[in-house]
Amino acid sequence: MAEGWPIPSALVFVLLSLSAWALESCPAPCSCLKGQDEVYILDCNRKRLSAAPVDPPEGIIQVTMNHNELTVLPFLGDVSSNITSLSLVHNRISALSMYQLQPYVSLETLDLTSNSITELNVGSFPSMQLKYLNLSNNRISVLEPGCFENISSSLLVLKLNRNRLAMLPSKVFKLPLLQFLELKRNKIKIVDSLTFKGMDSLKSLKMQRNSITKLMDGAFFGLNNIEELELEHNNLTEVNKGWLYGLRMLRILRVSQNTVGIIRPDAWEFCQKLEELDLSFNHLTRLEETAFVGLGLLDSLNLGENSISHLGEGVFSGLTSLRTLDIRNNEISWAIEDSIGVFVGMKKLNSLIIQRNKIKSITKKAFEGLDELEHLDLSKNGIMSIHPEAMSHMKLKEFVLNTSSLLCDCHMQWLGPWLTENSFLQSVSAVCAHPASLLAHNVLSVGPQEFVCDDFPKPRITTHPETYEALRGNNVTLSCVASSSSDSPMTTAWRKDGEVLYDAEVQNYARYQEGELIYTAVLHLLNANFTDEGRYQCVVSNHFGSNYSNRAKLTVNGVCYGDTGSEVETEGSGMLHCRVGSLFTGRSSFHPGEPREGLAGHPAGGAGPLVICSDCYDNANIYSRTREYCPYAYLGEDDPLDKSIPGLKESFGEHTQHDATPLDSLISNHNSSIFLTPHDKRLSSHTPPEHYANDSLSRSFWGEGEDPSLRAPPGASPHPVTVHRTPHLAADGPEEQREAESDCFPRQSTQDHRSASNRTNPQEHTAPS
Asked: Please, where in the chain does CATH 3.80.10.10 lie?
């Protein structure tokens, strides 16, 4: 009993009862006690015994000889046959022998924790009705197949923690009645298929703190009734349905403190009764939309202490029964700040913990769909703004917030009264950082008239990128414009389908206009391909928070051949969607219909005019040019049609080239324009433009020759804008196209090469202060 702890009254009664019923014939130095239900106990703990006491009295049922110096199992004479529980913890027993255990014909519980046993052999146990066996903290490195055979018809609990097991032989665990198996703190690295087959009654398996790096397919097959599987503190790298095969009754899975970086799309196919899932302290950076498919009964999900920065669309939407979600210490600020309704579908969520996620602002739709939420923890985020309607629909009983970064303008006037009304004063610390007159003021001490909107320091996006349809191989330009009343430097990042484009070609520049900083971000996609298709978004940030643009959809169309009247349908029918010719005039139109069969590079019945289509591209697969799969093929370098119609390519390129939005149209006040380099140069608004002429392009942005759209506007610096270039992005030349068109089989579309798979800081371009 720990010092200072009170002794429960019930325990006092038991101790008094035991001492009152002590047997007079108990052998020294042991104590004989009589417990409730007429249970007689021989207590020989900590007596430095090297042998069993002589002639213990009849009626003894339980024996405890812990912390002694026994080297073999003790023999207790005639009373041995009546013993049901034998505890020999912390002795020096080095081996188990059926001959030493044979007298204990009634034994049900045997605890040999902390001895020196090195192996279990076929002859270790006699035939007996043992139900509970604890062999933890020994030196066992060998389990001989069949070692548990003589106790297999009765054993319910087996503990082998803190041993030296490096492998688990097949067929060693043929224990049809076993319900609890513990193998914690061993040296197991690989669990082979069918290792636990033959354990139909097992309810719980604990394998924490091994060195497991691989669970083979079917590793747990045969555990038809298992409900709890604990694998914490191992080296597992992924969750997949292979090693989860057959666990149809599993309710609790704990895989925290591993190195899991991937959850396979169909991982939970056999675990759809899962109620508790712990994936905390892993290496997850992404949760695809398929991450939790099939877990409609899940009640608790712990994703804390990972590096999650990407959440697939609707990743949580199927978790309709979830009540607790812990996603602390990740990087999902964008999901809260971007108003995408990331929690929609979680109708029963009661507790949400998202502390330490670098969240700066809570938007109106941040918690959309969480009508039953009662506990919300937003602590340790440095939150600057909270929309007044963000939490109005919830029934919060507990709200945790600590921030000293609040932007206390007119939009924050509601917070103080709301905190008071809902009795959150003890769990919330909210301090103003702006404006300067309210710096370090608690929001509760600020009067209603002091919350004013004199300026707008947080970036506001005034021009959003626009949806666009481009020809394959052309260059595409997307742009957005933001403004701020603050001198705080702005940074920008571009995202595609929620992924930050770390190596994108980006131009950023800023200017002052009527007391505001106007910031423009331009994204260039060189030689557009099908992998560039997606929804693009710019994110503009400064010290006061971030703002997210609308998502602009980019569609990339290919080139195919067909008769002038060729008509192509799309999607369900498997047809191609073609924009039919007049490419020579620069005009085109869509027509429904059916495509004509033809060979690669040739339309059926001879050469016909070009048409633009989403040729050979569907369901994230890119099909290369062949006569079997792609009768409408791309115009290649060596196409016969190219030779038969001189100047066709030149004419086609001339009339279909995408005219990028001229930079001239993005600049209204030319004389005050300031162009930025990707090196985050701090430029003073008071320095003449000619002082920023240090950087220049060795060649024009789009390749050989100068693109007129990039010429400096009248009155601006005559030097071209310096842009960040990534050499491999401009390498999509004929060789890559020929490779993409070399065979007939579908190829799985890989992640866009402009996206990052590792978590790094995006390329930032800083505006002047």
From this structure: 16-164
